UniProtKB/TrEMBL annotation:
Every Amidohydrolase-related domain range: 3-331
Domain of life: Bacteria
Protein known as: Amidohydrolase family protein
InterPro entries noted in UniProt: ACMSD, Amidohydro-rel, Metal_Hydrolase
Coiled coil recorded as keyword: no
Keyword flag Lyase: yes
Keywords assigned: Lyase
Organism: Microbacterium sediminicola
Length: 342
């Protein structure tokens, strides 16, 4: 199988964005808080947006299953207060759950959390429980910077995050470390903000000893790990300077990178530097980079082509990147696929 562990509902029906605009206006003191029941999205609306977009590309590229979560840039945890985030997370999670219900053999849901700047991370636990137990989520997106670029949250190794980690371990689901929209114009949301956050998250984990307390906790750092593979020697050296073990022992039983890297040399470097068992296939299709590369004639985000072409993987290793690594890191995904005969 080809399992893409990183997809977002970037093509959600326009009604979703229109409802969110009303909610944002309310946070700015304009009008009343919109009623969630006024958001009307039909099954046909969902089918149309999926069949003509993500599903079409999955079929063309040969991807079997996508772990599908709310649009990352729409999470925007810095907008409004906790109540606003709770309402918005519930709406978005319910919507992606409907995608997985309408296309059960092709999409399995991941969830967002109702994080809010300055709020204790434990306030997200209730929605995490609902997403897993009621909606069937097999992963969550965890924003290490709910402030949207101000980085006011404690490091991921801080004990305030532990209630979330305890539930992740209990449910056997990983967290994808994924920021959302930048509130600072100097940072491009899907460019330097995303990739800088990926790198920052890895460094936070390197400086701490989180996995001593949570040996079974799993994190996926997306977008190929930001700058991490390219600067692997730097991070190894910093680990030594900080008195930490080698990275393979310190972090790599618990930290995994995806293949959302949009050119062949990038995938070649990733697969050369990072242990194969720590690489998970992903494309984040119809995401940050949606165009066709004029040098190749193929979409930048058609990452399957790069994984197939790299000389750094044997056939067995390629199969692990495409399927078995995901089944190992995502036990609930594995069980869900097995229950479908996949």
């Amino acid at each position: 199988m080809i399992i893409d562990i990183h997809g977002h509902y970037t093509t959600a029906p326009a009604q979703l964005g229109a409802w969110r605009d009303l909610q944002i206006a309310f946070t700015n003191g304009q009008g009343e808080a919109p009623d969630p029941s006024t958001l009307q999205i039909s099954d046909d609306d969902i089918r149309e947006t999926i069949e003509s977009n993500q599903l079409k590309l999955m079929n063309e590229r040969g991807t079997d299953v996508t772990v599908f979560s709310p649009r990352a840039s729409f999470m925007a945890h810095h907008i409004g207060d906790l109540a606003v985030s709770q309402t918005w997370a519930r709406i978005c999670n319910d919507l992606v759950a409907r995608v997985s219900q309408l296309f059960p053999d092709r999409f399995i849901m991941g969830a967002m959390l109702p994080q809010s700047p300055g709020e204790d991370p434990s306030t997200s636990v209730a929605e995490l429980i609902r997403a897993v137990e009621e909606l069937g989520a097999v992963e969550i997106n965890l924003n290490p910077d709910p402030s949207g670029g101000l980085w006011t949250a404690p490091a991921l190794t801080d004990r305030s995050w532990y209630p979330i980690y305890e539930k992740l371990v209990e449910y056997e689901i990983p967290a994808m470390i994924h920021v959302s929209t930048s509130c600072k114009p100097v940072f491009h949301t899907t460019g330097d903000h995303y990739l800088g956050a990926d790198t920052t998250a890895f460094m936070q984990l390197l400086k701490g000893d989180l996995f001593r307390d949570f040996p079974d906790l799993k994190f996926v750092i997306p977008h190929g790990g930001g700058a991490v593979p390219y600067h692997w020697g730097r991070f190894r050296g910093l680990a030594m300077a900080l008195g930490k073990p080698e990275l393979e022992d310190h972090l790599m039983n618990n930290v995994f990178f995806d293949t959302c890297v949009y050119h062949q040399p990038g995938i070649d470097l990733l697969t050369d530097v990072i242990p194969t068992e720590n690489i998970l296939f992903a494309s984040e299709m119809i995401g940050a980079v949606r165009d066709i590369d004029p040098r190749t004639g193929h979409y930048f985000d058609d990452t399957k082509r790069y994984v197939e072409a790299t000389p750094n993987l044997t056939d067995a290793e390629r199969s692990a990147v495409f399927e078995s690594n995901a089944r190992h890191v995502y036990p609930r995904l594995d069980r869900a696929l097995s229950a479908r005969g996949l």
